[in-house]
Amino acid sequence: MGSTAVGKTGLASGLLLKALQNGYRGLFIRAQDLFEEMYASLADRASRKLIRRLVRIDVLLVDELSYLNLRPEQTNIFFKLMEERYRRKPTILTTNLEYDQWHQLLGNKDLTEALLSRLRHQCQTIRINGPSLREPQG
d(Cα 25, Cα 58) in Å, to the nearest integer? Predict the structure, then answer.
């Protein structure tokens, strides 16, 4: 018998897949890759172009937003991206962090509070409790 357990990435991917099946354009991106792309965009002054590209995507899934070492510039670009998507396009974020831990990730407490205010305004938070799906088996 196989397990029917679904982790946060699986659940988020399922939501994204359903959006794709309904004709929406979507993107799955690991948070680490997104923040690396944001940092690289600073070098060639392409941050605005990157944000515009990501804002046009109907459903954006950012997977594993936790335990990253971010520079303030990356946090600023992420805030701008989320601000531009706010109330316009759905964004799915997966993380192991509770909301009160986000300032540790993003660094700037005031910016984090402003971001969370927007994110939580019209969001659904799904908490998955239970053992890790990556626990060693027997």
Answer: 5
